[in-house]
Design a protein that fits this description.
Number of domains: 2
Largest sheet: 6 strands, antiparallel
Strand content: 15-25%
Order of helices and strands: EEEEEEEEEEEEEEEEEEEEEEEEEE
Number of helices: 0
Structural class: mainly beta
Number of strands: 26
Radius of gyration: 38 Å
Length: 474
């Protein structure tokens, strides 16, 4: 026996019509209400809206059979497996996504039920692209399952270091920030892998100014470099990474960058010995010392020590003036070398010494010429900067040469590779020496000396320094 309850209207407390016999419309709830099914109840006839319910609590790691209306995260990191599709019915929908971005290594196979088709062909489909996701809808017996959405892009959060400041270039997976003047290196996000927060860097100070009248060459600015193992480039032999205090691990903060200027060259010898040493360059805890200034005729050089030392000249008569000490203050590895000693006063031996460079001491003055500048050193931390030397590498921190003298050859000696200035030639019209090259830390060349005193040349300025920071960004 069947009972029927029939009413014209059923109303909730707010007065909303739920069932209206006259209009053949059934309305459940009022605007803003939520309709809930009791535990264990199910619904039919409402259909789907073209979306799936993602099964976040069940990551698939082995072959399984999909269910209509569900989306799956497939983890193939342990090996390839298969997702079997359910029996097709019009409107059925299934999705799957590469959970560990390993489909390119271990494929996911999608297999249709029985003789059903995928895209009109009754064969398995293979997902083999990293990060791929697909959504399949069953249409009919002709086409079977059709892919209505296919993403091969892998949208992920950035796990690498993010920073701004200086001139930014890229090389492979590395970003390079080059500072040719004082500024700020600002880290807005650190890398999730701790090793990627240890950055590579090059910090070169300003070169020292050259001396006047039998003037010595200025010393190169101090050279300090660390190559992080995660940034592949050819570093100089002065890579300080093996010594832990040299390493810089960045945090999400602003790091002031100081790029040291070159020292000024001397205009006259004693008592107006006016040249100066170079200025320091700084990144975080790393300080490269400015290059020592070159001696002028008959003077005691109180500022000859520095990253690399300035050259010495003769003083007092007769006597010699030792070159300034390099690697002052000391670092490991050494940030520079000593300047060359001045020649003993007397016929054929009054020339000054060259400034020290990052890779060699300055050459001492000889009976025939002023000393050449000590060689700088090469690195590929940024192939677009520095001074081109032998081969494709870029060179920095070359010492400057001393000026020519009338006791020997009238031609000056050469500055060291890496931006060191040449000394000035002997000339009736005093000619300044060559300045150190800016942003290499090269020393300034020394002025010539001779009789009459109108032949005495002027020293030149040292080159400014540079700071370069390199890190992995992808």
């Amino acid at each position: 026996m069947t009972s029927t309850i029939k009413v014209n209207n059923i109303q909730n407390q707010c007065g909303a019509n739920i069932i209206n016999e006259n209009s053949n419309t059934i309305t459940l709830g009022a605007s803003g209400d939520t309709i809930a099914l009791a535990s264990g109840a199910s619904q039919t006839g409402f259909g789907r809206t073209g979306t799936v319910d993602w099964q976040t609590g069940s990551i698939k790691t082995a072959t399984f059979t999909a269910v209509n209306g569900e989306g799956y995260f497939a983890n193939t990191s342990g090996g390839a497996f298969t997702m079997n599709l359910p029996a097709g019915s019009a409107g059925a929908i299934v999705s799957v996504v590469d959970y560990t971005n390993t489909f390119q290594t271990n494929n996911l196979t999608i297999s249709p039920n029985g003789t059903e088709k995928i895209g009109g062909i009754a064969v398995d489909a293979i997902l083999s692209t990293e990060g791929q996701s697909v959504t399949l809808v069953y249409i009919d017996g002709t086409e079977g399952w059709k892919n209505v959405q296919d993403s091969t892009s892998n949208v992920t959060g950035n796990p690498f270091l993010v920073a701004t400041g200086g001139t930014i270039t890229t090389c492979g997976n590395d970003k390079i920030h080059t500072f040719t003047g004082s500024s700020t290196f600002t880290v807005s996000q650190v890398a999730t892998c701790a090793a990627n927060n240890v950055v590579s860097y090059l910090v070169v100070a300003g070169g020292g100014g050259g001396g006047a009248s039998h003037g010595a060459g200025g010393g190169a600015g101090g050279y300090r470099e660390v190559k992080s193992p995660v940034t592949p480039y050819t570093a100089s032999p002065l890579d300080g990474y093996p010594s832990a205090p040299n390493r810089v691990t960045v945090t999400a903060t602003a790091f002031p960058i100081t790029v040291g200027g070159g020292g000024t060259g001397a205009v006259n010898p004693n008592p107006n010995d006016s040249n100066t040493k170079g200025s320091n360059s700084i990144f975080s805890t790393i300080i490269s010392a400015g290059g020592g200034k070159g001696s002028s005729e008959s003077t005691t050089n109180s500022e000859g020590a520095g990253g690399s030392g300035g050259g010495g000249t003769y003083s007092p008569n007769p006597g010699t003036n030792a070159g300034g000490a390099g690697n002052t203050p000391p670092t490991t590895p050494a940030q520079g070398n000593n300047g060359g000693q001045g020649g003993t006063y007397g016929p054929g031996a009054a020339a000054a010494g060259g400034g020290g460079g990052a890779n060699a001491v300055g050459v001492a003055g000889s009976p025939s010429a002023g000393g050449a500048g000590g060689a700088g050193i090469s690195t590929a931390i940024n192939p677009a900067t520095g001074e081109t030397g032998p081969g494709p590498a870029q060179y920095y921190a070359g010492g400057a040469a001393a000026g020519a003298t009338n006791y020997g050859a009238p031609s000056p000696s050469s500055g060291g590779v890496g931006g060191g200035g040449d000394g000035s030639p002997l000339s009736a019209t005093p000619t300044p020496a060559n300045a150190g090259v800016d942003n290499t830390g090269g020393g300034g060349g020394g002025g010539a000396g001779g009789a009459p005193s109108t032949y005495n040349g002027k020293g030149s300025n040292g080159g400014s320094g540079i700071v370069i920071i390199r890190y992995k960004f992808q």
